[in-house]
């Protein structure tokens, strides 16, 4: 059974997830800021990082990428439609805010091009392309453990914003409907901000998804 650690990091409290499996191997999802806090959890639990996976490349999800990649010598995975976002402040959203420095991160090491089953060490997951919040947003689904990491596609009681580069509300709603709400109702959905939820809960109570 996989284990999940959640850290709320950076100025907008972005959720970073550390998913660990057999032999303490782990994957880091969306290390948005505060690399030291991520390192502390990894050290305390004696974990062995294998990769960094990004649900998308907005600035609040990528701030600690380069530091962790260099420290652990691990690859970074990102959807190919956002290959230019990491190094471009206008695309990753950091240029939009005067109080936020321009974020420029080195290119991803591995580009996701298709929906697929991805195996990294002992950890297996399905990748769903869930655009709308951004063009290359993806969700990572772990069917055996009944959870998914969904980035800023869907939140508890809300949905992702669509006013940043290449966002689309109609595309976002279609992604949620076809990829997330079709999962088993009690699947835990871990979003980029805020608490976890389930497809059943969002289908019934999310005001953005009700007819």
Automatic annotation (TrEMBL):
Keywords, comma-separated and alphabetical: Hydrolase, Metal-binding, Zinc
Superkingdom of origin organism: Bacteria
Keyword Hydrolase attached: yes
Pfam family, one: Lactamase_B
SUPFAM superfamilies for this protein: Metallo-hydrolase/oxidoreductase
Compositional bias ranges of the Polar residues kind: 198-211
Region (Disordered): 190-211
InterPro entries with a match to the protein in the record: MBL_Glyoxalase_II, Metallo-B-lactamas, RibonucZ/Hydroxyglut_hydro
Cofactor: Zn(2+)
Domain (Metallo-beta-lactamase) ranges: 13-193
PANTHER family from the UniProt entry: HYDROXYACYLGLUTATHIONE HYDROLASE GLOC
Name of this chain's protein: MBL fold metallo-hydrolase
